Amino acid sequence: MEKGLLIVFSGVSGVGKGTILSKLMEMEDLNLAYSVSMTTRAPREGEVEGVNYFFVTKKRFLEAIKNGELLEHARFVDNDYGTPKEYVDKMREEGKNVILEIEIKGARQVMEKCPDALSIYIVPPSLEELERRLLERKSEDEQTIMKRISKAREELKDIDFYEHIVCNDDLDIAVAEVREIILNEMNR
Ligand code: 5GP
Q: Which of 7, 109, 144, 152 could cross-link to 99 by cystine, CB 3.0-4.6 Å?
């Protein structure tokens, strides 16, 4: 059986990555498997252990790094995030296209280790629109939102190593574009 693709999917927080992803996950022909990350961040309301993230202590996170359990890891704002390697390898061996929703530093590490990974970055129509969406989402306090916006400004300067940049102005169009990118890669 042919090994599945590795797809690196990134974008500034609040850009709508999660929404795009959940629509893609429903499309059976894309044959996607979502890689659940490990994080030291506290769960947000409604987030479920093992579905959104594996929520762990800093001690457990450091242990995972030491044991070589993570394909990549990075610090983002005030927390650590990392991709458990075993699941990614297993799913790809089973022919699934594994999707990693990760930030830019981790994406770089993955691209160095797996240069044939497919990389997609979602950008907002503007930073003003991003700020509006983050404030509307109300999942963080204002100070954290400001930190995330300044992080976004920084991150957006550095995204040219991604193979594909998709603008999420209209959700359905963005979903269709990402779908096409994945289908093209599957048929190569
Ligand atoms: P959030 O706290 O909003 O869930 O995620 C913050 C940022 O961390 C997002 O840009 C998200 O894509 C990224 N992220 C989530 N999981 C991982 C991971 O396993 N590794 C890395 N490098 N970034 C991650």
A: 7
